[in-house]
């Protein structure tokens, strides 16, 4: 049986351990971010491209919206929508497919046999951006020319298999897209040939749409740039990527340091609670052993114990010898450490008292007075003896 306070202390330890587990899981998720896959199902994509599909999707969206960050996608299709004011980067099937790959990456469906598919009408909902009308320019199977040029300048690797893959009713299937992209990459061969920016130095690209697809009346559209990538722009892009990676590394180090300090503190509190519980257990064990032994030592004497030998011994009250004998016997018992109340007597000559009979205090009767050897009488009441 648990002692008082032990059960609550153990429950507190269980709660602390549960909090530690939850804290570690939350910390690992926060450090990983929303662009890291939770399983190894999309390792094939990482081996081909060098980054997760979430990172590719985020980099493409940041061409038009530098402040865009991949959120935690929900299982309600579509996981994300094209709601930027400049729709050039997201209003196409390529960005939509990358968002679906990112959903499988975040939620851990990429390792399953079927993955997470999109039902019919999902692509249309993605293009509407949460509204009633579709985004524009809707280039569907490819990027607009300006976006494709930016993809080349930023060296974003977009697999060739993502171009021209679309279902007319707006659905999408993970396994089919995976297998088609893998086959396309193997056919194109290793190196830059498997990516859309493999021909970035060409003035035209078969995978891009014409400039006429861009709205003529749109304002704030970035000015057209040359398709030729200069060494200066590449150096700037690489510098930005290195700076961003360094910033992420510093943030991860800071997060790990703070998490480690908090974890050590919680472990210290748990250790203190365990020691406290052990000390309380020892105290209760000591009290239990003392109570079972009959007290805290020989000095705890029960005054209501009747000495059977004394109860069965006849007592007489005749003469002073009876008083002297009783006093000497009691004195011996006191020296021996046995304290028992005196056995009562009566004038009726009753000598044997049963041991089970309750003791009653009675008057011992008058004590005979005998003259002293000197012949003097005892002093009167209240008289001082000199």
TrEMBL record:
Low complexity biased stretches: 196-241, 364-375
Superkingdom classification of source: Eukaryota
Region (Disordered): 192-241, 316-386
UniProt KW Membrane keyword: yes
Keywords attached to this entry: Membrane, Signal, Transmembrane, Transmembrane helix
Signal peptide: 1-32
The keyword Flavoprotein is assigned to this record: no
Ranges annotated as spanning the membrane: 252-274
This protein's name: Mid2 domain-containing protein
Organism listed in the record: Tetrapyrgos nigripes
